[in-house]
Amino acid sequence: MRKTLGKKGRNLARPFLHAATLLFLLSATICPASPPNPGCPTSPTIASVSPSTWFAGKTYNNVVITGTGFTTADKATAACPATPVSIAAADGSAVPVSGVNVASATRIVVTVRPPANDPTETATVTVGTTPSTGTASAQIEALSAAITRTNQIVNGIVEVRLDAPAGSIGNLNLNLNGENGTYSQSFLSLPPGSKKIDFDLASVPPEIYDTADGIWDADLPAGSRVQSVDVASVTFAKEWIYLGLTRFSQYNTPYESQCSGGSQRMYVFDRSSCTYISTQMNSDFVIQTALNGTGMSVDYGLLKPIGATNARKLCKGKLPPEASTANTLVRVAAVTGSCNTAITANHSVATYPNPNDASANPLLVCHDSLNLDQADNTTVYTRVVADNCPACIGGNHIDSYTDNQACEAHGAIGDLGNFYTSTTR
Amino acid sequence: MTRGVFKSNKTRLQASCLRMACVALLLLPLSVPCYAQQVKELPSDHGITGKQPDVYWHDADIHFDLDASTKDWGVVVQQGSNPAERVPLPDYLDQVYAIHRVAPNRALLLADLPAGAQFAGIIETPPARLIDSFWSAAKPSLSPDNRYILFVRFYPMHGADSYDDQYRLYDVLGTRASNWPERPAQDGPPTAPVSYDPTLAGIPVYPLKAGELGRENTNIEDGQAHERASEIIWSADSRKAVFADAQGGAMSLVVVTMPPGGGGKPQTAVHMLVGSENACQGLGKPLCDYRNVRSIAWDGDNVIVALRIWPQQGKTIDVDLTIPQSKFLPASK
User: Fold this and answer.
1) What pLDDT shows up at residue A360?
2) A308 and B156 in contact by Cβ < 8 A?
């Protein structure tokens, strides 16, 4: 069936067709030649076919074949049936024809439907039955639009292939289909060929998108009217989770060695033994550690404010007197995020809701890889989800962990920037 | 109300006179008179730029200007023809985003701290000095008349397993004693470990249930943590504020009514969204946080809330509710 054959199918069909032709020739040499149909007074001929140019994928309901020697249904006999019509593409495969109406001895009206994947090629229109046939040529013009690649959808990019006669041009309307709606964008005056399509990231609403489709309104040359060509729906290999323009603030592990403040008395608590010591620490370091959740001390290694640990539960009754975030730091082995993995500078980010809390049904989960794009659909940074950021509530805000060891504030650690952010999963 | 982006001076003058000072002058003896006013503050969606932008509040009788020209930041207060005074600011501020004059002799300074935490400081004059300050885990919400701040008690911004949003109310015209009722007398940074919890500014307004009131606000048992689910929305007269709070897969609206006449205690009332109002009815796909709340507004004494339900299959469902004050019950104590 030609309609179901793609290009591969057509290529596969060729050997079979050649074999059929060979079989026919062999038969012809063995069997006597068929005599002219005695019931038909003359062989049919074709003078013209109108229209004689057909666009792939379109339906032509009134293709008029004019000529001579056609047998109408009312004059048909068993020996001379109504004149049949067939159309063959250049490779011999059949072009679907239906609704054959032999209106008179000189006029036949048919419906022709060249498949959407037909290339530009010549077709042969045949009336009658072998060997009493008439033929004429017609032209099939490729006309199709397809999304051919979606592997860059994380950048808001797809690739399309537009096929139409040279000189065609038209607006391509592509849809991104998501859980809660469809985003449509027009790409104006596109000629045939392969195109990389950049969606306008500033306009695409945050959503989980899984398919794309569309329509190409091709304005064909030589006075042909505009033809609407469907772009078949394509399912992305992975869902595109688009967050929109997102602020990336930054947090760090301040180093006490970088601090310039005075000193204050603090408790340093060891969870492994549930013991503590009283010591002096830099006051700026204490403040920055309380804010950021971790700090690298000069004498005690990595520390966390007590409120960011489970020390209270683990060592109940063994804490320093009146232990609080302001006066007690706890020794830890590594900077870990809520995903229970060590977080890495310039790589890990914190998001909201907690990416490790399945009950919160977070949009971003642990280990999601994020693309941080500019408006021109190019990636500036990539980051991986590893931590919780309660300050990021409300959306459009992610906190990125930086290797900056600054202990000071006053904008010492500015934002990474605002980026069009997405992931695929 | 003076919040907003960089408006033109003319716009700000009109806005401030119409919305705050002129009205407040009739209502509150301590409120700010209708002076010609020029204000510059950062937009609500500002980031941290690394270079402190200009921030100031200018009235005809007094100017408050942030001075970040050196590493030692301060606020320069110029009152009439008196010599300018400089109020030193803590060196841990990341970026100042607003100064509000809250009374004839007081101003409120709001700033970002590292890692997303927030700072609020009260400047009093004369003599000009920082008389109090506190941290918040989320952007503090200032009442339209600049009298009250509703905020979330501070917790370290990273590293805890879970966070409990505990809402507290701070009276910018109050005293240190009235605004720190749960903290022992020692004030200022301790020189030694003492009974001092700098996270307990203001008075608690939610949650107030036994077992929740006064508890630690990190590493809470699963399903027990409170989580803010909306902005804090004030009534135009600054008498009430409403917000959404989620806990254990249930959403509640919380109304905090300010103390009458500025004295006494605030009242907290809660309306849990259940049954047909339940925005968290996720049909097997639990979702119960800020994503369920499209907006909250006041309509007289009614709360108008626009909810979004996320079913397991199909598109989201939007529900708009009008909840009268009578449906709110006093928060359990």
Assistant:
1) 78
2) yes
Query: Interior CA angle at B204 toward B198 and B208, to 5°?
Result: 135
Report the alpha-carbon distance of residue A111 to residue A86 in Å, rounded.
Answer: 11
Distance between CA atoms of residues B166 and B137, nearest Å: 10
- Please tell me chain A's helix, strand, coil percentages from 3-state DSSP, rounded to the nearest 5: 15, 45, 40
The structure tokens 């907290």 sit at B268
> pLDDT tens digits, residue range A234-272?
999 999 999 999 999 999 999 999 998 899 889 999 999
Q: pLDDT tens, A111-121?
A: 999 998 889 99
- A2-141: CATH number: 2.60.40.10
Spell out the SS3 assignment of B97-158. Answer: EEEEEEECCEEEEEEECHHHCEEEEEEECCCCEEEEEEEECCCCEECCCCCEEEEEECCCCC
**B271-to-A55, A349, B48, B247 alpha-carbon distances in Å:** 64, 35, 37, 13
Q: How many CB atoms lie within 10 A of CB A240?
A: 24
Task: Report the pLDDT value the prediction gives residue A377, as an integer from 0 to 100.
Answer: 97
A144-238 placed in CATH 2.60.40: yes
Contacting residues of B for A251, CB less than 8 Å apart: 114-116, 157-158
* Domain ranges within chain A, ordered by starting residue: 2-141, 144-238, 254-331
- Is B193:A321 a contact under the CB 8 Å cutoff? yes
Q: B295 and chain A: CB distance < 8 Å anywhere? A: no
For the segment A180-196, what is each residue's pLDDT rounded down to a tens digit? Answer: 889 999 999 999 999 99
Contact A414 B196 (CB under 8 A): no
What does chain B come to in residues? 333
What ipTM is given for this predicted complex?
Answer: 0.84
d(CA B106, CA B111) in angstroms, rounded, equals 17
Are A163 and A142 in contact by the 8 Å Cβ rule? The answer is yes
**Which H/E stretch holds residue B17?**
none
Tally Cβ neighbours within 10 Å of residue A163.
25
B176 inside 8 A of chain A by CB: no
